[in-house]
Write a structure and sequence with these properties.
The chain has 10 helices and 15 strands. By secondary structure, the chain is α+β, with helices and mostly antiparallel strands. It has 3 domains: about 70 residues, no CATH class; about 80 residues, no CATH class; about 140 residues, no CATH class. It has a 6-stranded antiparallel sheet, covered by helices on one side. Strands 4, 5, 6 and 7 form a 4-stranded antiparallel sheet that branches. A 3-stranded antiparallel sheet has the order 1-2-3. The longest helix has 21 residues. It is globular, with a radius of gyration of 22 Å. The termini are far apart. About 30% of the residues are buried.
């Protein structure tokens, strides 16, 4: 998985846009939905296709947002959509028709395949995930069961027979810390700005912010200080960070804000378009949309302002000592 996505040749932005998925033109949206209908029909299932969901005769619904984003981001362009759609529909139906893994797997195996997952508020029904831990406004940690073809986000009802929630979360974090780093790239410029990006096909790559100390150690060989790090989780396959040591984090913050906002747009598994200050496991949001919604702004509280002032003073003192 690449760090930056190069868009395939598509209808121009001047073409009328699809009302639900604006990254599609109207024609592309119609083609995409027709391919979804055809893929279900090939599996013997007639569905009604709506703007963002399909429904079968039994009332089961299948959301289209993630699949649409996957098609949009496929570098092969629309010629690859039929294959992508067929594979996705086949996986969905196999998962739906198979016995629940919660009924067939031994409890110990379920615990061995548990992972914490960081998700955005969109699509998370609080009635089913009352146990979800709030990490920051609009950002939550839930538990997921990793399966060969899918990831099952576990509801309150699903977790109840598995044991104590604190124990399950500890087990999930242990499993998360054991994951390998699939890929790592450094983003930097000629002025000294720098931040690191961990990326991979794992659905838990961004969720590794929950074990950031271990990730930083794996990637850089260094330990985080008490000042923590800047982090961004634009979508499930990327985690960006900058360990805070000096005023270099000011330029990193600005660059990461743009990186997070761009990475969040039109991606499957989108999590957050913002940058956060990670300090001892706590996340504080630092970037936000402009009031008009067209740009970005940096918003810092008293604690982060004190950190900035301390780092600036420390750098000035160091310059004075060198004079």
């Amino acid at each position: 998985m690449g760090l930056f996505r190069r868009g395939p040749k598509r209808d121009g932005r001047d073409a009328p846009r699809d009302p639900e998925f604006s990254f599609f033109s109207e024609a592309e949206g119609a083609r995409f939905r027709a391919q979804v209908r055809e893929a279900f029909a090939e599996k013997g299932l007639e569905v009604s296709v709506y703007a963002d969901v399909v429904s079968d005769s039994e009332g089961r619904q299948f959301g289209l947002a993630n699949l649409a984003a996957v098609c949009h981001n496929d570098e092969r362009g629309p010629r690859a959509w039929p294959e992508v759609v067929r594979q996705h529909v086949g996986m969905v139906l196999r998962t739906m028709d198979a016995p629940s893994a919660l009924d067939t797997l031994p409890t110990e195996q379920i615990r061995a395949q548990l992972y914490p997952r960081v998700v955005g508020a969109d699509g998370l029904n609080p009635e089913n995930f009352a146990y979800a831990r709030s990490l920051a406004p609009g950002l939550y940690e839930i538990l997921a069961l990793d399966l060969p073809e899918s990831v099952m986000m576990l509801t309150d009802e699903a977790l109840e027979p598995l044991g104590d929630l604190r124990y399950l979360r500890d087990q999930a974090l242990y499993n998360l810390r054991g994951l390998p780093v699939e890929g790592h790239e450094t983003v930097k410029d000629s002025e000294g700005m720098r931040f690191e990006v961990v990326l991979g096909d794992s659905f838990y790559t961004a969720s590794r912010v929950l074990a950031l100390d271990a990730v930083v150690r794996q990637v850089t060989g260094d330990e985080l200080t008490a000042d923590g790090a800047l982090v961004a989780m634009p979508f499930r396959h990327q985690l960006a960070f900058h360990a805070i040591h000096d005023t270099g984090m000011i330029s990193a913050l600005s660059a990461m804000a743009s990186f997070a906002a761009a990475g969040y747009t039109d991606t499957p598994g989108a999590i957050s378009p913002y940058v956060y200050w990670w300090r001892d496991g706590t996340l504080t949001q630092l970037s936000d949309r402009d009031e008009d919604g067209d740009g970005l702004r940096i918003v810092v509280g008293d604690d982060f302002q004190e950190l900035l002032e301390r780092l600036v003073a420390q750098e000035n003192n160091d310059r004075g000592d060198d004079a």
